[in-house]
Amino acid sequence: MKVPVIVVLKRFKPGKLLTVFFTVFFCLFLTLGFWQLNRAHEKSILAEQVNSSASQFEASTNPSPYQSFKIAGQFTELPTFYMDNRTLNGQAGYEVWLFFETKQGRWLVSSGWVAGLNTREKMPSFELSTKPQAIEIIVRPDSENPMYGVDTNTPLNDGKSVWLVQSLNQQWIENLYPKKPLLGLAQLKDSELFGVGPSVWQPSVMTVEKHLGYSLQWFGMSIALLGMFLYAGFSRKQQQ
């Protein structure tokens, strides 16, 4: 008596080329599906960090991106870094970065967005309190432009206290102003209330739900490919 599994295997003849094609793309689709699941998990952790309650920053703390902190100190109006090519509701403008001085050191803080002027020869003005205050921040990773590096950043006055920048990273800032320790780059929470305007920074472009949706698509494609492979393997045998 023949074993049913052996009979089924004898009837299944997909061919070498089809088997290679199936193996490559089936493994690819599964890999992409699990990768999207992993990205969804990472984004959920990131969202928890961004939305977590801010803790008081201590001198011994080693800040990592997306942590929230409460810090006390004051803004300085100069130097000012205007980050170029920042839009809000279709309007061109700049993201304004300013130093916030604390007892532990200084932060370079994105303090909000301001609309651009009709000319690029002059930067827009803004209003900001430089009195001592307590604020909440989210630690940001380096703000790098894939097209333009820090070498394209341009001083707009002789004293190099006003800059038009395309990219920002901690190393460049520390080299430019080495006298005081730089604790990191950060985003001001409630920038419309405590800063110069609304925030245009988002910690993540793609949501957890989108990553999960993409993972389901890749897994669905792998299941469909498996079905077509089995159908082709059995139908080919019948045709022969």
Automatic annotation (TrEMBL):
Record field: transmembrane: 216-234
Q: How does it sit in the membrane?
A: Multi-pass membrane protein
Subcellular location as annotated = Cell membrane; Membrane
**Keyword Transmembrane helix belongs to the record:** yes
Q: Which domain of life is it from?
A: Bacteria
Concerning its family, UniProt says: Belongs to the SURF1 family.
Q: What is this protein called?
A: SURF1-like protein
